[in-house]
Amino acid sequence: MEIDEAVRGCSDRRMRTKYANAVYVVQRAFALYPFEEVAFSFNGGKDSTVLLHLIRAGYYLYKKDSGDVAEMDAVKNCPLRTIYFESPCAFPEINSFTYETVSTYGLPLETIHSDFKSGLEGLLKEKPTKAIFIGTRIGDPNAVGQEQFSPSSPGWPPFMRVNPILDWSYRDVWSFLLTCKVKYCSLYDQGYTSIGSIHDTVPNALLSDSSTEKIFRPAYMLTDGRLERAGRTKKTNHNIEMNSVASNGMTSIEGEQTISRAASIIVVGDEMLFGTTEDKLGAALCKKLHAIGWRVSHVAVVRNEIDSVSEEVERCKSMDDMVFILGGLGPLHSDVSLAGVAKAFGVRLAPDEEFEDYLSQLMGNNYTGDRNEMALLPEGITELLNHKRLPLPLIKCRNVITLAATNVDELDTEWDCLLDTQESGLVQAKPFVSKHLGTTLTDVQIALVLAKLCLEFSDVYIGCHRISRAGPLVVNLTGKDNQRVEAAAEKLTSTFEGQFSQVDSCK
């Protein structure tokens, strides 16, 4: 069989291992389920093209091992029931490649024009279907929590999802396609690296020819598989943006600047709780968020325990736009931050090939432990935020970003890189402005005035602190409208003529 011969004869040891594991899953599926009750979901993309040929190879080997060698031509093509969900938003090239491929390999095609769930419900009512081969890979949005054999989700028609290439990377996919020299959709030679609908897919800009923006290199030339989806355009809900500011009569841009986003900061470290050291990074990060117009709603220091991290992440991730974790990263037994994040999202830690490559380049042969342990990241929800100034990418899991800084200087660098990385989600809004006024008046003397001032200037935060009990009282006024902050300050100082003076924020 040509696929089996091509892979087993190649020099790529990793490819041979991935292939052997995948065809074993295929063979196992055919051993568990009757052939007529198994189907293959094909969409014309690169992943399902790989899966098609793995199914062909696996079925051939299954029949060969069982001693059934009759009609080997039919066995080589594996005439498995094939499901195609045809969409009016699909690229014409995808449709034509799909029908051409089906014809080439004699696949009995069942075209469905409804959505995936409704289509499956109708399909399973007409024909018993116990298992469906699907080209899901780790990193796909629907891959979270799946195994190579995974029952369908609650509320869906009952069938077994068979995922032979679940642990394959972008590089593995192209290694297989090029090694086997099989035909794939022509869009991949035009710079498309991940194909969705005609409305949300463009060629990957990272493959653009430097001499012209209209010529792109083939998809297999993308060197960083983590950027596979860089050609998927992000949808913006303009209605939500407009509705959020319509009552104020502002434009969407003005509204975006004044919307206050909230963040939580979680500092992981027993050393802070024991009083061995003090947290300087949390305070520094608060100032940085404040400077880009973000409000910090919560700062917590937790123990180096998975459950402690998990409980805090679980509490913060649903309340705030972003959660930042400081500390607890590395190979030590106390480095539990990522395990805590994984538990909070209900996923497992799984090896990440791209992150392992970065670790290997950084450490070389100087690392004596199990390098794979440091490359275990929360499965299916992790995005690596790479920047040329960073030795390792920062790790983002949905709206949780884990920072690796150990001091303020390192935090400065990581923060600048985050702001320079669109995928970080750190939208810069209108910054807060502050005014700090000091007085020797007592709390009792100014309490009533401050209470009334809070009511009159509800859009300005008014707080107080003392450096010492005998020292001056500092009133802090913070908001996004400088005129309102100044007006509140003027109202306070005029009420107590000559009793207030401006001070630095640190006093």
Automatic annotation (TrEMBL):
Keywords: ATP-binding, FAD, Flavoprotein, FMN, Nucleotide-binding, Nucleotidyltransferase, Transferase
PANTHER family in alphabetical order: FAD SYNTHASE (PTHR23293:SF9), FAD SYNTHETASE-RELATED FMN ADENYLYLTRANSFERASE (PTHR23293)
EC number(s) recorded for this UniProt protein: 2.7.7.2
Listed pathway(s): Cofactor biosynthesis; FAD biosynthesis; FAD from FMN: step 1/1
SUPFAM superfamilies linked: Adenine nucleotide alpha hydrolases-like (SSF52402), Molybdenum cofactor biosynthesis proteins (SSF53218)
Protein name: FAD synthase
InterPro entries documented for this protein: MoaB/Mog-like_dom_sf (IPR036425), MoaB/Mog_dom (IPR001453), PAPS_reduct_dom (IPR002500), Rossmann-like_a/b/a_fold (IPR014729)
Domain MoaB/Mog intervals: 264-411
Record organism: Urochloa decumbens
GO molecular function terms listed in the Swiss-Prot or TrEMBL record: ATP binding; FMN adenylyltransferase activity
Pfam family, one: PAPS_reduct
Membrane-spanning parts: none
Reactions that this protein is recorded to catalyse: FMN + ATP + H(+) = FAD + diphosphate
Superkingdom of origin: Eukaryota
CDD domains assigned to the protein according to its UniProt record, in alphabetical order: FAD_synthase
